[in-house]
Design brief:
The complex is a heterodimer. By secondary structure, chain A is an alpha/beta fold. Helix content of chain A is 29%, strand content 15%. Chain A contains 15 helices and 16 strands. In chain A, the strands form five sheets. An eight-stranded mixed β-sheet of chain A has the order 10-9-11-12-14-13-15-16, with helices on both faces. Chain B has three domains: 178 residues, FAD/NAD(P)-binding domain (3-Layer(bba) Sandwich), CATH 3.50.50.60; 123 residues, FAD/NAD(P)-binding domain; 87 residues, Enolase-like, domain 1 (2-Layer Sandwich). Chain B is 25% helix and 29% strand. In chain B, strand 9, helix 6 and strand 10 form a beta-alpha-beta unit. The chains are: A alpha/beta, B alpha/beta. At the A-B interface, strand 2, strand 3 and helix 2 of A face helix 1, helix 7, strand 20, strand 21 and helix 8 of B.
């Protein structure tokens, strides 16, 4: 079953101004009367708000309640459509709906319901506090889901592996005209480079050393370019390979402006070989080489901020992303892809590891989301012309404890260690803010071709309700 | 013998809801639907609008052939069951063919009741239960001058409005003391009747037909009080009765309809019944009831389908709640729940003859028992949920009585999140 776009109501942001109802009445009924709106905001006695509107149910009750076949769920858009020509005004659909999503408009003389304004809801546009949000995530998944998965089935990632999600989604989007470099790490470890003479991808893939991933890939790219072939050169590397022993060659390739897309899946350590610490492992984290005991209490150094170091190379594009914010991730992937045609593009994806971080496998996206919401990691992007820009607000973060308490690797932390982490996060935020130019919305013209209508989820509206 | 895993007898709302529910969990099990009519499935509820010309008879079908093909359903239309053998799980069809089934749903619906009035069988009359009936009645409209409608239920009232709009003089004969008995209380019924009278429709309540004979004009109907009503068209709208004659020697328990339990199962293993034909638990009393309304058919059909497909999400039937919506001469009326106020219940009634508005709310121990509205907007689906969930409204009683629509919406919206 396909996924659909949806209008989300964030009750905590609603101030009851009623502009959504006015906008709806104007757009759909050419009336200034909120009674003519197809949604209604209601306040309870405690001043909290609720929203009555069509929820475009997956298995709607109004549709089978119609004796005249006037209601149908559009399989492509998910919107439940009403056919005035077939409607017999019997109102039985209003018996089917438990949420008043379809109701009689007395002035019009027939039932009315939300049709999402064909993909640009007037109510959402009119909502200044951001209480109504039009989520287009589903359509993005749909578009990417329809692209071919260029990895083979049955890769041997751990249960709930986020890395597998990142690499499959990335390669679908990047497409078949690609050469993949997969240095030692979880990506080849789960079988991406193949076993016994078979590859794990449907595109050319090779297995460089940790130390020479970027230059090998750059050499291949130069070869194809000389042959006159348009090929994307994509590295799928881990944080260890990129930030530690592979850093010199990565830095060199970035400095030379090699036309490659270097994607780092940052799971904060060498998870494939037994969960050793890397320079991206955060302070206090348990790893097999920063154990917890009488003397040692996890890692005693802070994590290196590799993406910020890449900014200092003045790469054509640098960004950080998270799988909990896929719309944002896809937008950045598209921009990185575009930038890699003319220069060095670097994309850093924060990627929780269920095995190495010690949390239940079903919680991967939740952990990724909490890391972002608590400012443990920050989402931003950089180009030499536009500078550095936060793509999600760092103001009003969720408490750090909500993130730490999910993870086994932080279970031992003392209050002093938590305070240390908190100071480090504050430093990070201050540093990024210093780098960041004034936050400006992404203008539609800057959206790259391909997924043309993707809108980044920015500022206060960025939560994935 | 031909075999099918699921056999569904009937092709209207209950049958289609069951089919949908089955296919949600079992995409492959062979499934056969037997439809009585030769057409694609349609709803009896749409028929008055076919008569009026509002609905194009070619556009009233609830599903098309493509739907059945995609759902891998064998749709056999123009056939009916004549006999079933529950022990051997065999159904006999009227064309002599036999089908062996694993699971059977009886959603055979109801047919029009023909009252035993002397002389009725000797005169031409109309009923309105099938598309064929509707087309026949529609063809008759232009030449109708004086029409008699026997029965002031929904079919009779709809037809009377259509006939009077078409220019005919209409007389409605109703045995009980009000129109739409069972749907609205007598005060609401009076408001509705007045709209008909303003349109020159004659309504005779507490009137019983004792004889019918052919007359020069068409038919003459003799009433118990000695008066006679004559007309050139007679429509019988005396209610419906479940289609269960094929069960005569099946030993499946029947009362007025087929008696079912909370999962719509009949007294026989592997056989279910739903919709107008089923007699299921009442929300209000111990005695199982027929509840021949569309929302009930959809709900029972879904429950039966889930039970047949062993859907683990199945929740049993909570009991039939009378509900209806009715539109007449541009007005709208809604009834949800029972109008019989239990002892000690709080009954709040607003009525305004001038604006033809009416609202009656019955609260029983702080819970919604029934709500009835004319030209007063409420959301019947929301009210149905408040009734069936037995939601305690004590804390919001004053606001609910003052603004039932707003309060209902607020409650259901908050319950959803």
């Amino acid at each position: 079953m396909p996924a659909y776009n949806t209008i989300v109501f964030h009750a905590d942001r609603c101030d009851g101004c009623g502009k959504c109802m006015l906008a709806c009445a104007q757009a759909k009924s050419a009336s200034d009367s909120p009674q003519r709106a197809r949604l209604e905001v209601l306040a309870d006695d405690a001043g909290r708000f609720e929203l009555a509107m069509c929820r475009q149910c997956a298995d709607p009750e109004c549709v089978p309640s119609c004796p005249a076949a006037a209601l149908a769920k559009n399989a492509a858009t998910g919107v439940i459509e009403w056919d005035h020509g077939k409607c017999i005004d019997c109102l039985l659909c209003t018996v089917g709906c438990s949420y008043a999503g379809i109701a009689l408009d007395e002035a019009a003389g027939h039932v009315v319901k939300c049709d999402q304004c064909g993909g640009d809801p007037a109510c959402v546009r009119a909502c200044k506090p951001g209480a109504l949000e039009y989520l287009t995530m589903a359509r993005i998944y749909e578009e990417v889901g329809s692209l071919e998965d260029l990895f083979v089935q049955g890769l041997a990632g751990c249960q709930g592996c986020n890395t597998e999600l990142v690499m499959r989604h990335t390669l679908r989007r990047v497409g078949p005209d690609t050469v993949v470099a997969a240095p030692p790490g979880c990506v080849p470890g789960m079988g991406a480079v193949g076993y016994n003479g078979l590859t794990g991808t449907k595109v050319p893939v090779f297995h460089p050393l940790l130390t020479n991933t970027a230059p090998m890939l750059a050499g291949l790219k130069r070869f194809y370019k000389r042959k006159g072939r348009q090929v994307t050169a994509l590295a799928l590397a881990g944080d260890g390979g990129a930030a530690d022993v592979g850093f010199q060659s990565l830095s060199g390739a970035a400095e030379r402006g090699e036309e490659i897309l270097f994607l780092v899946i940052d799971n904060e350590g060498y998870m494939n070989t037994g969960m050793q610490r890397s320079s991206c492992t955060p302070y206090g984290a348990w790893t097999s080489t920063t154990p917890v005991g009488r003397e040692s209490h996890g890692k005693s150094q802070d994590a290196k901020n590799l993406p910020l170091i890449m900014v200092e190379h003045r790469c054509a594009y640098v960004a950080t992303a998270s799988t909990a914010f896929m719309a944002d991730f896809y937008l950045k992937l598209d921009r990185a892809l575009q930038a890699s045609k003319t220069g060095f593009a670097y994309l850093h994806v924060y990627s929780p590891c269920t095995t190495g971080w010690r949390f239940p496998s079903k919680k991967n996206i939740e952990v990724a989301r909490k890391a972002v919401e608590s400012n443990f990691v920050l989402l931003w992007e950089y180009t030499p012309t536009a500078g550095l820009r936060l793509t999600r607000s760092v103001d009003d973060p969720a408490p750090l404890s909500e993130y730490l308490e999910v993870l086994g690797k932080y279970r031992h932390l003392t209050p002093e260690q938590v305070a240390h982490l908190q100071r480090h996060i504050a430093e990070n935020v201050a540093t990024i803010k210093r780098h960041a130019v004034a936050e400006a919305p992404v203008s539609p013209a800057s959206t790259p071709p391909g997924i043309s209508s993707v809108r980044a989820l920015q500022g206060p509206a960025a939560s994935q309700a | 013998m031909e075999q099918t895993h699921y056999l569904i007898a009937g092709a209207s709302h209950a049958a289609l809801a069951a089919l949908h529910a089955i296919r949600l969990v079992d995409a492959d099990g062979s499934l056969t639907v037997i439809g009585r009519d030769r057409e694609l499935p349609y709803s009896p509820t749409v028929l008055p609008h076919v008569v009026s010309g509002r609905s194009d008879p070619k556009c009233v079908f609830l599903r098309d052939h493509e739907y059945f093909a995609r759902a891998r359903v064998a749709y056999r239309c123009g056939h009916a069951l004549v006999r079933i053998d529950p022990a051997n799980r065999v159904a006999d069809l009227d064309d002599g063919s036999r089908l062996r089934f694993e699971k059977l749903l009886l959603a055979t619906g109801a047919r029009a009741v023909i009252p035993p009035i002397p002389g009725l069988d000797a005169v031409p009359y109309h009923v309105l239960r099938t598309l064929e009936d509707a087309l026949r009645l529609r063809a008759q409209l232009p030449q109708t001058r004086r029409a008699i409608v026997l029965g002031a239920g929904l079919i009779g009232m709809h037809a009377a409005e259509n006939l009077s709009r078409g220019g005919a003089r209409v007389t409605i004969i109703e045995q009980q003391e009000q129109v739409l008995p069972g749907y609205f209380d007598i005060d609401a019924a009076r408001i509705i009747a007045r709209a008909f009278e303003r349109a020159d429709v004659t309504i005779r309540t507490s009137a019983r037909a004792v004889a019918i004979e052919a007359a020069a004009e068409g038919v003459a109907l003799k009433l118990a009080d000695g008066s006679t009503v004559s007309g050139d068209l007679l429509l019988i709208g005396a209610g419906v009765t479940p289609v269960i004659d094929f069960l005569a020697d099946s030993r499946i328990q029947c009362d007025r309809g087929i008696v079912v339990d909370a999962t719509m199962q009949t007294s026989a293993e592997r056989i279910w019944a739903a919709g107008d034909v089923a007699q299921a638990a009442s929300f209000y009393g111990a005695r199982p009831v027929l509840n021949g309304i569309l929302p009930n058919a959809v709900e029972q059909g879904r429950i039966a389908g889930m039970a047949m497909a062993d859907d683990r999400a199945l929740e049993g039937f909570r009991g039939a709640v009378p509900l209806n919506t009715y539109r007449y001469y541009g007005h709208h009326a809604v009834s949800v729940g029972s109008g019989a106020a239990p002892p000690g219940a709080e009954v709040v009634e607003y009525s305004d003859a001038e604006s033809q508005r009416y609202l009656k709310i019955i609260l029983d121990e702080g819970r919604l028992h029934g709500i009835f509205a004319i030209n007063t907007p409420i959301d019947p689906g929301v009210m149905w949920q408040l009734v069936r969930r037995r939601l305690d409204l004590s804390a919001v009683r004053a606001r609910f009585l003052a603004q039932p629509r707003e309060m209902g919406r607020l409650l259901m919206s908050s319950l959803w999140r």
